[in-house]
Please model this.
Amino acid sequence: MENQLKVLRAMRNWSQAELADRLDVSRQAVNAIETGKYDPSLPLAFKLGRLFDMRIEEIFDDGFNGGNDE
Model:
């Protein structure tokens, strides 16, 4: 799943470790999410949304557009 996490983190000048501390996860977990190797749990996705004041769909793209190809 593609995501904007690295960009959002960089805009705030946060290191992976700083973001991890804010989320109460490991730096390795942040790296895995940023690189698409790991999809966050729903509670973690909501936590990210609250942290960045964004909807989950604005941070993550599952590649599914709901069949609205026009």
About this structure: The chain is about 55% helix and 5% strand.
